[in-house]
Amino acid sequence: MGERGRNQRIDLGLLVMRLGLAVPMLIYAVPKLIAGASAWQRAVRDIPLLGQSGSPEWVGLAVLILVTLAALMLLTGFLFRLATLVLTLFFVVFLIHFMSLGYRTLPIYAASQVGLCLGLMFSGPGRFSIAVKIESK
């Protein structure tokens, strides 16, 4: 297979990684956004790094909106590197939180998500994204 086939496989791999990261983030955030203020508060109540400043409801709402927007940006490719930066910070907060609680496996999961986000940040969205299709026209 030539260079074109290799590039298509790389772009398909980037698409699968973007979907694998964005879809769970949407499954996490959207139901909480819809549920209202009590769910917004619960989203940050258990994470001391986030729940200490301001009203927990508004902090939770802001975090959930950022995660949702970042996931949508991953799916479309618009502002892709900004989206990966937001999700990297999100997972770093969880990594610190899980480590402070003494968990053994959850920090590994959070660290792997940080690595995935950083890898996507450096590689870009690939050709199979809406933003790249619009830019190429």
3D architecture notes:
There is one protein chain. The protein is an all-alpha fold and about 140 residues long. It has one domain (about 5-135). It has helices at about 5-35, 35-45, 50, 55-75, 80-100, 105-125, 130-135. Helix 1 packs antiparallel against helix 4 (about 55-75), helix 1 (about 5-35) crosses helix 6 (about 105-125) and helix 2 (about 35-45) packs across helix 4 (about 55-75). The protein starts with a helix and ends with a helix. The model has no long low-confidence stretch (mean pLDDT about 85).
Could you give the topology of this structure?
Blueprint: H1 3-35, H2 37-45, H3 48-51, H4 56-76, H5 80-101, H6 106-123, H7 130-136
Helix pairs in contact: 1-4, 1-6, 2-4, 4-5, 5-6
What is the compact description of this entry?
Helix content is 83%, strand content 0%. It is an all-alpha fold and 137 residues long.
